[in-house]
Protein backbone atom coordinates (compact mmCIF):
# COMPACT_ATOMS: atom_id res chain seq x y z
CA UNK A 1 0.00 0.00 0.00
CA UNK A 2 1.30 3.39 -0.95
CA UNK A 3 1.90 5.81 1.86
CA UNK A 4 0.15 9.19 2.10
CA UNK A 5 1.69 12.43 3.31
CA UNK A 6 0.15 15.70 4.39
CA UNK A 7 2.37 18.75 4.98
CA UNK A 8 1.35 20.85 7.99
CA UNK A 9 2.20 24.49 7.31
CA UNK A 10 3.07 26.64 10.30
CA UNK A 11 5.02 29.90 10.53
CA UNK A 12 8.76 29.07 10.40
CA UNK A 13 8.06 25.52 11.58
CA UNK A 14 6.07 23.64 14.18
CA UNK A 15 8.54 23.82 17.06
CA UNK A 16 7.78 26.82 19.26
CA UNK A 17 11.42 28.01 18.93
CA UNK A 18 11.57 27.62 15.15
CA UNK A 19 11.21 31.34 14.43
CA UNK A 20 14.24 32.07 16.61
CA UNK A 21 16.62 29.74 14.78
CA UNK A 22 15.71 30.11 11.11
CA UNK A 23 17.56 32.91 9.29
CA UNK A 24 14.48 34.15 7.40
CA UNK A 25 12.82 37.54 7.78
CA UNK A 26 10.42 37.23 10.74
CA UNK A 27 7.76 39.11 8.74
CA UNK A 28 8.10 36.83 5.71
CA UNK A 29 5.43 34.52 7.13
CA UNK A 30 2.87 37.26 6.51
CA UNK A 31 3.37 37.12 2.74
CA UNK A 32 2.18 34.73 0.08
CA UNK A 33 5.71 33.75 -1.01
CA UNK A 34 6.30 31.86 2.24
CA UNK A 35 3.24 29.65 1.72
CA UNK A 36 3.80 29.30 -2.03
CA UNK A 37 7.36 28.07 -1.50
CA UNK A 38 6.23 25.41 0.99
CA UNK A 39 3.30 24.32 -1.18
CA UNK A 40 5.56 23.93 -4.22
CA UNK A 41 8.09 21.95 -2.19
CA UNK A 42 5.37 19.60 -0.93
CA UNK A 43 4.08 19.19 -4.47
CA UNK A 44 7.59 18.49 -5.75
CA UNK A 45 7.61 15.68 -3.16
CA UNK A 46 4.32 14.33 -4.56
CA UNK A 47 2.68 14.71 -1.15
CA UNK A 48 -1.10 14.22 -1.02
CA UNK A 49 -1.87 17.57 0.53
CA UNK A 50 -0.85 20.65 2.40
CA UNK A 51 -2.77 21.61 5.51
CA UNK A 52 -3.56 24.93 7.16
CA UNK A 53 -4.92 24.88 10.70
CA UNK A 54 -7.29 27.51 12.08
CA UNK A 55 -7.49 29.09 15.49
CA UNK A 56 -10.37 31.47 15.97
CA UNK A 57 -9.10 33.30 19.01
CA UNK A 58 -5.61 33.85 20.25
CA UNK A 59 -4.73 34.08 23.93
CA UNK A 60 -2.51 37.12 24.35
CA UNK A 61 0.44 35.24 25.90
CA UNK A 62 0.94 33.72 22.46
CA UNK A 63 1.85 37.06 20.87
CA UNK A 64 5.03 37.15 22.93
CA UNK A 65 6.21 33.64 22.21
CA UNK A 66 4.94 32.65 18.76
CA UNK A 67 4.58 34.29 15.34
CA UNK A 68 0.92 35.13 14.83
CA UNK A 69 -0.18 34.40 11.28
CA UNK A 70 -3.64 32.92 11.61
CA UNK A 71 -5.07 34.07 8.29
CA UNK A 72 -8.30 32.66 6.98
CA UNK A 73 -7.07 29.26 5.70
CA UNK A 74 -9.42 29.25 2.70
CA UNK A 75 -8.15 32.62 1.53
CA UNK A 76 -4.55 31.37 1.67
CA UNK A 77 -5.37 28.02 0.06
CA UNK A 78 -7.24 29.77 -2.75
CA UNK A 79 -4.09 31.75 -3.52
CA UNK A 80 -2.05 28.54 -3.37
CA UNK A 81 -4.42 26.87 -5.82
CA UNK A 82 -3.01 29.28 -8.41
CA UNK A 83 0.65 28.36 -7.85
CA UNK A 84 0.18 24.57 -7.63
CA UNK A 85 -1.60 22.12 -9.90
CA UNK A 86 -1.87 18.72 -8.24
CA UNK A 87 -1.46 18.83 -4.48
CA UNK A 88 -4.52 18.68 -2.20
CA UNK A 89 -5.44 21.80 -0.21
CA UNK A 90 -6.86 21.11 3.25
CA UNK A 91 -8.09 23.84 5.57
CA UNK A 92 -9.77 23.86 8.97
CA UNK A 93 -13.32 25.09 9.45
CA UNK A 94 -15.23 25.28 12.75
CA UNK A 95 -18.61 23.64 13.25
CA UNK A 96 -19.19 25.67 16.40
CA UNK A 97 -18.63 29.18 15.03
CA UNK A 98 -19.28 29.06 11.27
CA UNK A 99 -22.66 28.82 9.55
CA UNK A 100 -23.21 25.73 7.37
CA UNK A 101 -24.17 27.67 4.24
CA UNK A 102 -21.17 29.97 4.46
CA UNK A 103 -18.69 27.17 5.14
CA UNK A 104 -20.16 24.96 2.41
CA UNK A 105 -19.79 27.80 -0.07
CA UNK A 106 -16.19 28.62 0.88
CA UNK A 107 -14.90 25.04 0.61
CA UNK A 108 -16.85 24.39 -2.61
CA UNK A 109 -15.37 27.60 -4.04
CA UNK A 110 -11.88 26.28 -3.23
CA UNK A 111 -12.79 22.95 -4.81
CA UNK A 112 -13.84 24.72 -8.03
CA UNK A 113 -10.83 27.05 -8.17
CA UNK A 114 -8.38 24.20 -7.54
CA UNK A 115 -9.96 21.69 -9.90
CA UNK A 116 -11.06 19.30 -7.15
CA UNK A 117 -8.27 19.56 -4.57
CA UNK A 118 -10.13 20.88 -1.51
CA UNK A 119 -10.43 19.22 1.91
CA UNK A 120 -12.25 20.41 5.04
CA UNK A 121 -10.74 19.61 8.43
CA UNK A 122 -13.84 19.52 10.63
CA UNK A 123 -13.08 20.93 14.07
CA UNK A 124 -15.35 21.92 16.94
CA UNK A 125 -12.91 24.57 18.28
CA UNK A 126 -11.41 23.87 21.69
CA UNK A 127 -10.57 27.36 22.88
CA UNK A 128 -13.34 29.02 24.91
CA UNK A 129 -11.92 32.42 23.90
CA UNK A 130 -13.64 32.03 20.52
CA UNK A 131 -17.03 32.67 22.17
CA UNK A 132 -16.14 36.25 23.03
CA UNK A 133 -14.70 36.90 19.58
CA UNK A 134 -17.99 35.81 18.01
CA UNK A 135 -20.19 37.64 20.50
CA UNK A 136 -21.49 34.44 22.12
CA UNK A 137 -22.11 34.36 25.86
CA UNK A 138 -20.83 30.81 26.34
CA UNK A 139 -18.53 28.31 24.65
CA UNK A 140 -20.48 25.03 24.33
CA UNK A 141 -19.07 22.04 26.20
CA UNK A 142 -17.50 19.07 24.41
CA UNK A 143 -20.61 16.87 24.12
CA UNK A 144 -22.67 19.79 22.88
CA UNK A 145 -20.00 20.82 20.36
CA UNK A 146 -19.87 17.34 18.85
CA UNK A 147 -23.66 17.08 18.66
CA UNK A 148 -23.65 20.34 16.72
CA UNK A 149 -20.78 19.06 14.55
CA UNK A 150 -22.79 16.06 13.32
CA UNK A 151 -25.74 18.23 12.41
CA UNK A 152 -23.52 20.89 10.86
CA UNK A 153 -21.72 18.36 8.64
CA UNK A 154 -25.06 16.90 7.61
CA UNK A 155 -26.26 20.37 6.58
CA UNK A 156 -23.02 21.12 4.68
CA UNK A 157 -23.05 17.85 2.71
CA UNK A 158 -26.71 18.38 1.79
CA UNK A 159 -25.80 21.77 0.39
CA UNK A 160 -22.94 20.25 -1.62
CA UNK A 161 -25.26 17.55 -2.96
CA UNK A 162 -28.18 19.79 -3.95
CA UNK A 163 -26.88 20.66 -7.41
CA UNK A 164 -26.89 17.55 -9.59
CA UNK A 165 -23.62 16.67 -11.35
CA UNK A 166 -25.08 17.45 -14.75
CA UNK A 167 -27.25 20.45 -13.84
CA UNK A 168 -25.39 22.88 -16.08
CA UNK A 169 -26.54 22.29 -19.64
CA UNK A 170 -25.39 25.58 -21.22
CA UNK A 171 -27.89 25.29 -24.04
CA UNK A 172 -27.50 28.55 -25.94
CA UNK A 173 -30.17 27.72 -28.51
CA UNK A 174 -32.90 27.15 -25.94
CA UNK A 175 -31.52 29.74 -23.54
CA UNK A 176 -31.15 27.26 -20.69
CA UNK A 177 -28.01 27.67 -18.58
CA UNK A 178 -28.93 25.12 -15.91
CA UNK A 179 -31.75 22.59 -15.70
CA UNK A 180 -33.89 23.32 -12.63
CA UNK A 181 -35.06 19.71 -12.58
CA UNK A 182 -31.51 18.66 -11.76
CA UNK A 183 -31.18 20.94 -8.76
CA UNK A 184 -32.76 19.67 -5.57
CA UNK A 185 -34.60 21.96 -3.22
CA UNK A 186 -32.75 22.22 0.05
CA UNK A 187 -34.59 22.55 3.35
CA UNK A 188 -32.55 21.54 6.35
CA UNK A 189 -34.14 21.89 9.76
CA UNK A 190 -32.14 20.67 12.72
CA UNK A 191 -31.85 21.38 16.42
CA UNK A 192 -29.06 23.94 15.95
CA UNK A 193 -29.20 24.94 12.30
CA UNK A 194 -31.75 25.80 9.65
CA UNK A 195 -30.70 26.12 6.04
CA UNK A 196 -33.22 26.92 3.34
CA UNK A 197 -31.68 27.39 -0.04
CA UNK A 198 -28.95 26.12 -2.32
CA UNK A 199 -25.41 27.24 -3.03
CA UNK A 200 -25.10 29.99 -5.64
CA UNK A 201 -23.03 27.87 -8.04
CA UNK A 202 -23.02 24.29 -9.35
CA UNK A 203 -21.56 21.22 -7.73
CA UNK A 204 -17.76 21.29 -7.44
CA UNK A 205 -15.38 18.83 -9.15
CA UNK A 206 -15.16 16.47 -6.16
CA UNK A 207 -18.86 16.87 -5.43
CA UNK A 208 -18.03 16.91 -1.77
CA UNK A 209 -14.62 18.28 -0.76
CA UNK A 210 -12.72 15.61 1.21
CA UNK A 211 -13.83 15.41 4.85
CA UNK A 212 -11.02 15.41 7.39
CA UNK A 213 -11.28 15.09 11.17
CA UNK A 214 -8.75 15.64 13.94
CA UNK A 215 -10.57 15.28 17.29
CA UNK A 216 -9.20 12.57 19.58
CA UNK A 217 -11.87 12.27 22.28
CA UNK A 218 -14.43 9.42 22.05
CA UNK A 219 -16.92 11.96 20.65
CA UNK A 220 -14.30 13.13 18.14
CA UNK A 221 -13.65 9.59 17.00
CA UNK A 222 -17.42 9.09 16.69
CA UNK A 223 -17.57 12.09 14.35
CA UNK A 224 -14.66 10.71 12.32
CA UNK A 225 -16.28 7.27 12.14
CA UNK A 226 -19.40 8.71 10.57
CA UNK A 227 -17.91 11.27 8.21
CA UNK A 228 -14.14 11.36 7.79
CA UNK A 229 -12.15 10.09 4.82
CA UNK A 230 -8.92 11.31 6.35
CA UNK A 231 -8.11 11.43 10.07
CA UNK A 232 -5.32 13.38 11.77
CA UNK A 233 -4.30 11.97 15.10
CA UNK A 234 -1.70 12.84 17.72
CA UNK A 235 -0.63 9.53 19.26
CA UNK A 236 2.22 9.60 21.79
CA UNK A 237 3.66 6.23 20.66
CA UNK A 238 3.40 3.55 17.97
CA UNK A 239 1.35 1.31 20.26
CA UNK A 240 -1.07 4.14 20.95
CA UNK A 241 -1.30 4.78 17.20
CA UNK A 242 -2.14 1.12 16.49
CA UNK A 243 -4.82 1.19 19.18
CA UNK A 244 -6.24 4.45 17.83
CA UNK A 245 -6.41 3.21 14.24
CA UNK A 246 -7.87 -0.18 15.20
CA UNK A 247 -10.54 1.48 17.32
CA UNK A 248 -11.34 3.97 14.56
CA UNK A 249 -11.62 1.20 11.97
CA UNK A 250 -14.07 -0.77 14.08
CA UNK A 251 -16.19 2.33 14.65
CA UNK A 252 -16.11 3.15 10.92
CA UNK A 253 -17.35 -0.37 10.18
CA UNK A 254 -20.04 -0.07 12.88
CA UNK A 255 -21.18 3.13 11.18
CA UNK A 256 -21.70 1.12 8.00
CA UNK A 257 -18.66 2.45 6.14
CA UNK A 258 -15.57 0.73 4.72
CA UNK A 259 -12.49 1.20 6.98
CA UNK A 260 -10.32 0.69 3.90
CA UNK A 261 -11.50 4.08 2.66
CA UNK A 262 -10.39 6.00 5.73
CA UNK A 263 -6.77 7.14 5.88
CA UNK A 264 -5.13 7.79 9.24
CA UNK A 265 -2.19 10.20 9.16
CA UNK A 266 -0.76 10.79 12.66
CA UNK A 267 0.93 14.11 13.29
CA UNK A 268 4.72 13.74 13.29
CA UNK A 269 7.10 16.59 14.02
CA UNK A 270 10.44 15.94 12.33
CA UNK A 271 13.96 17.25 12.85
CA UNK A 272 16.41 15.88 10.29
CA UNK A 273 20.19 15.95 9.99
CA UNK A 274 22.85 14.42 7.73
CA UNK A 275 23.98 12.46 10.77
CA UNK A 276 22.10 11.52 13.90
CA UNK A 277 24.37 13.79 15.94
CA UNK A 278 23.58 16.74 13.69
CA UNK A 279 19.83 16.11 13.98
CA UNK A 280 20.14 15.86 17.77
CA UNK A 281 22.05 19.14 17.90
CA UNK A 282 19.33 20.85 15.91
CA UNK A 283 16.62 19.47 18.17
CA UNK A 284 18.60 20.38 21.30
CA UNK A 285 19.02 23.96 20.13
CA UNK A 286 15.24 24.25 19.61
CA UNK A 287 14.53 22.81 23.06
CA UNK A 288 17.13 25.06 24.76
CA UNK A 289 15.34 28.11 23.44
CA UNK A 290 11.90 26.90 24.55
CA UNK A 291 10.34 29.05 27.25
CA UNK A 292 9.01 27.35 30.42
CA UNK A 293 6.62 30.29 30.75
CA UNK A 294 5.19 29.47 27.33
CA UNK A 295 4.94 25.73 28.08
CA UNK A 296 2.55 25.92 31.02
CA UNK A 297 0.37 28.55 29.43
CA UNK A 298 0.27 26.62 26.18
CA UNK A 299 -0.55 23.32 27.88
CA UNK A 300 -3.64 25.01 29.34
CA UNK A 301 -4.59 26.88 26.19
CA UNK A 302 -4.36 23.87 23.87
CA UNK A 303 -6.41 21.91 26.42
CA UNK A 304 -9.19 24.49 26.14
CA UNK A 305 -8.51 26.37 29.41
CA UNK A 306 -7.74 30.06 29.90
CA UNK A 307 -4.14 30.41 31.21
CA UNK A 308 -4.95 33.75 32.88
CA UNK A 309 -7.04 31.94 35.48
CA UNK A 310 -4.14 29.81 36.80
CA UNK A 311 -1.08 30.11 39.07
CA UNK A 312 1.85 28.07 37.67
CA UNK A 313 3.52 27.78 41.08
CA UNK A 314 0.85 25.59 42.66
CA UNK A 315 -0.72 22.27 41.58
CA UNK A 316 -3.83 22.37 39.36
CA UNK A 317 -6.92 22.66 41.62
CA UNK A 318 -8.27 19.26 42.73
CA UNK A 319 -11.82 20.39 41.88
CA UNK A 320 -10.77 20.83 38.25
CA UNK A 321 -9.06 17.44 38.07
CA UNK A 322 -12.18 15.71 39.41
CA UNK A 323 -14.51 17.30 36.85
CA UNK A 324 -15.01 16.47 33.17
CA UNK A 325 -12.03 17.39 31.00
CA UNK A 326 -13.00 19.91 28.30
CA UNK A 327 -10.97 18.09 25.58
CA UNK A 328 -8.72 15.09 24.98
CA UNK A 329 -5.68 17.34 25.47
CA UNK A 330 -7.05 18.43 28.85
CA UNK A 331 -7.49 14.77 29.79
CA UNK A 332 -3.76 14.20 29.08
CA UNK A 333 -2.80 17.20 31.20
CA UNK A 334 -5.12 16.14 34.04
CA UNK A 335 -3.66 12.64 33.97
CA UNK A 336 -0.12 14.01 34.24
CA UNK A 337 -1.24 16.25 37.13
CA UNK A 338 -2.99 13.39 38.97
CA UNK A 339 0.20 11.32 38.74
CA UNK A 340 2.12 14.08 40.55
CA UNK A 341 -0.42 15.72 42.89
CA UNK A 342 2.17 17.81 44.76
CA UNK A 343 3.94 19.17 41.67
CA UNK A 344 3.28 22.75 40.59
CA UNK A 345 1.56 23.25 37.25
CA UNK A 346 4.79 24.67 35.77
CA UNK A 347 6.61 21.37 36.33
CA UNK A 348 3.79 19.12 35.17
CA UNK A 349 3.39 21.17 32.00
CA UNK A 350 7.12 21.27 31.17
CA UNK A 351 6.89 17.83 29.59
CA UNK A 352 3.79 18.65 27.54
CA UNK A 353 4.85 19.92 24.17
CA UNK A 354 3.14 20.71 20.91
CA UNK A 355 -0.51 21.55 20.40
CA UNK A 356 -1.41 18.40 18.48
CA UNK A 357 0.21 15.98 20.94
CA UNK A 358 2.47 14.79 18.15
CA UNK A 359 5.54 12.56 18.31
CA UNK A 360 8.90 14.28 17.63
CA UNK A 361 11.20 12.30 15.33
CA UNK A 362 14.88 13.29 15.44
CA UNK A 363 17.37 11.55 13.13
CA UNK A 364 18.61 10.97 9.61
CA UNK A 365 16.48 10.56 6.47
CA UNK A 366 17.31 6.86 6.45
CA UNK A 367 16.15 6.50 10.05
CA UNK A 368 12.95 8.41 9.29
CA UNK A 369 12.19 6.18 6.30
CA UNK A 370 12.67 3.13 8.57
CA UNK A 371 10.43 4.70 11.20
CA UNK A 372 7.67 5.42 8.68
CA UNK A 373 7.78 1.89 7.29
CA UNK A 374 7.76 0.37 10.77
CA UNK A 375 4.61 2.31 11.69
CA UNK A 376 2.94 1.43 8.42
CA UNK A 377 3.75 -2.28 8.79
CA UNK A 378 2.51 -2.30 12.39
CA UNK A 379 -0.86 -0.93 11.29
CA UNK A 380 -0.25 2.34 13.13
CA UNK A 381 -0.60 4.68 10.14
CA UNK A 382 -1.40 5.06 6.46
CA UNK A 383 1.21 7.80 6.30
CA UNK A 384 1.86 10.97 8.29
CA UNK A 385 0.99 14.58 8.73
CA UNK A 386 4.51 15.93 8.51
CA UNK A 387 5.27 18.89 10.75
CA UNK A 388 8.71 20.29 10.01
CA UNK A 389 10.16 21.50 13.31
CA UNK A 390 11.57 24.30 11.13
CA UNK A 391 10.17 25.35 7.77
CA UNK A 392 10.81 25.26 4.92
CA UNK A 393 14.06 23.41 5.81
CA UNK A 394 12.72 20.20 7.35
CA UNK A 395 10.10 19.80 4.64
CA UNK A 396 12.69 20.27 1.87
CA UNK A 397 14.91 17.67 3.56
CA UNK A 398 11.95 15.29 3.77
CA UNK A 399 11.13 15.75 0.09
CA UNK A 400 14.71 15.56 -1.16
CA UNK A 401 16.04 12.80 1.08
CA UNK A 402 13.24 10.75 2.64
CA UNK A 403 10.79 10.55 -0.25
CA UNK A 404 13.39 8.99 -2.65
CA UNK A 405 14.14 6.23 -0.12
CA UNK A 406 10.44 5.44 0.28
CA UNK A 407 10.05 5.42 -3.50
CA UNK A 408 12.99 3.04 -3.91
CA UNK A 409 11.38 0.74 -1.40
CA UNK A 410 8.14 0.81 -3.37
CA UNK A 411 6.22 2.53 -0.58
CA UNK A 412 5.44 5.86 -2.22
CA UNK A 413 4.22 7.11 -5.60
CA UNK A 414 6.75 8.24 -8.19
CA UNK A 415 4.23 10.51 -9.92
CA UNK A 416 0.75 11.81 -9.28
CA UNK A 417 -1.74 9.52 -10.97
CA UNK A 418 -4.90 11.37 -9.88
CA UNK A 419 -6.08 14.93 -10.33
CA UNK A 420 -8.19 15.38 -7.21
CA UNK A 421 -7.34 15.08 -3.53
CA UNK A 422 -9.74 12.15 -3.21
CA UNK A 423 -7.91 10.35 -6.02
CA UNK A 424 -4.55 10.89 -4.28
CA UNK A 425 -5.94 9.31 -1.12
CA UNK A 426 -6.99 6.08 -2.85
C1 LIG B 1 -2.94 17.28 13.14
C2 LIG B 1 -3.98 18.03 13.93
C3 LIG B 1 -4.47 19.23 13.44
C4 LIG B 1 -5.42 19.98 14.15
N1 LIG B 1 -5.85 21.17 13.65
C5 LIG B 1 -6.73 21.92 14.37
C6 LIG B 1 -7.14 23.21 13.90
O1 LIG B 1 -6.73 23.67 12.85
N2 LIG B 1 -7.99 23.94 14.67
C7 LIG B 1 -8.47 23.48 15.85
O2 LIG B 1 -9.25 24.20 16.50
N3 LIG B 1 -8.11 22.25 16.32
C8 LIG B 1 -7.26 21.48 15.60
N4 LIG B 1 -6.86 20.26 16.08
C9 LIG B 1 -7.45 19.80 17.34
C10 LIG B 1 -8.61 18.87 17.12
O3 LIG B 1 -9.45 19.26 16.08
C11 LIG B 1 -9.46 18.77 18.35
O4 LIG B 1 -10.08 20.00 18.54
C12 LIG B 1 -8.67 18.44 19.56
O5 LIG B 1 -8.02 17.22 19.34
C13 LIG B 1 -9.59 18.40 20.77
O6 LIG B 1 -10.80 17.75 20.52
P1 LIG B 1 -11.05 16.36 21.19
O7 LIG B 1 -11.27 16.66 22.64
O8 LIG B 1 -12.23 15.74 20.51
O9 LIG B 1 -9.80 15.58 20.93
C14 LIG B 1 -5.90 19.48 15.38
C15 LIG B 1 -5.42 18.27 15.87
C16 LIG B 1 -4.49 17.52 15.17
C17 LIG B 1 -3.99 16.22 15.72
TrEMBL record:
Domain of life: Bacteria
Organism encoding this protein: Kineosporia succinea
Keywords: Flavoprotein, FMN, Monooxygenase, Oxidoreductase
Entry keyword Flavoprotein: yes
GO molecular function, one term: monooxygenase activity
InterPro entries for the chain: Diverse_substr_monoxygenases, Luciferase-like_dom, Luciferase-like_sf, NTA_MOA
Domain annotation Luciferase-like: ranges: 28-380
Protein name as annotated: FMN-dependent oxidoreductase (Nitrilotriacetate monooxygenase family)
Short name of any one Pfam family annotated for the protein: Bac_luciferase
Family, similarity comment: Belongs to the NtaA/SnaA/DszA monooxygenase family.
High-level lineage: Bacteria, Bacillati, Actinomycetota, Actinomycetes, Kineosporiales
